[in-house]
Structures are given as structure tokens and as C-alpha cells.
Specification:
121 residues; Nuclear Transport Factor 2, Chain: A; 3 helices; 6 strands
């Protein structure tokens, strides 16, 4: 079960924009992430590379946590709003639920649930 302190530190790191650092610090080497029902991305190194690619595609990416993270045993649920601003200054917003499985104070699996149509608006 993760400590509240670890979950809060992880969220704070995302809110300050240190997405890559959060992966490096909090994910296990064999961590998996899933975008909705797509095949997983497996391994911290691949997750870092994927995140760097996303960040390189935008001028700015911002994360805002909506409400508290809910912790129950090894599971954490958090609602997020992500804003992606492209080079032309257009911002798209994504409302997402992150469902995480932790092993102690490290993330082993994360599933992101969102409506991809949000990014097309």
C-alpha cells in the first residue's frame, strides 16, 4: 500500500510539470501503463521515452489534479485535467481518471481512462 506522502509527492511532481522525473522516481523498472484499452507500454525506460515524445510535441503540457487522490489498499484513483498547448498556441484539454496499482511507494501499473474525442474539440 502506498503512503499518502508518496501519492501526494507524485501528484505534486506532475503538477509542477516534471512528468519525466515522476516516472523515473515513482515507477518500477517493469511498470506498465495503458491508454484506455490499448496495448500496454511496458518498462520504465519505454515510459520515459514515450513521455519525452509527448512533451516534445507540445509547447506546454499542464496537469491539474481535481480533488484528492483516493487510496484503497494498493490502488489509487485520481482525476486529472491535462492541457496541451501546441506551437500555434491552441490548447486542448483532457479530463482523465488515472487508476494506479502500487507496490509500496512505487507504481507498478497505471491505466488512463478518458474520452479521446476531447482532444479533437
Amino acid at each position: 500500500m502506498p503512503s499518502r506522502q508518496a501519492v501526494e509527492a507524485f501528484a505534486k511532481q506532475l503538477e509542477t510539470g516534471d512528468f519525466v522525473g515522476a516516472i523515473e522516481q515513482f515507477y518500477t523498472p517493469d511498470a506498465e501503463t495503458y491508454e484506455n484499452n490499448a496495448d500496454p507500454t511496458v518498462g520504465r525506460e519505454k515510459l520515459v521515452a514515450k513521455e519525452r515524445g509527448v512533451l516534445a510535441a507540445f509547447k506546454e503540457v499542464r496537469a491539474v489534479r481535481i480533488g484528492p487522490s483516493l487510496i484503497e489498499g494498493d490502488h489509487v484513483a485520481t482525476r486529472w485535467t491535462f492541457s496541451f498547448t501546441n506551437a500555434e498556441g491552441m490548447t486542448r484539454t483532457l479530463d482523465e481518471i488515472a487508476w494506479q496499482t502500487w507496490r509500496g511507494d512505487k507504481l507498478v501499473e497505471e491505466r488512463f481512462y478518458y474520452d479521446p474525442k476531447q482532444l479533437g474539440r
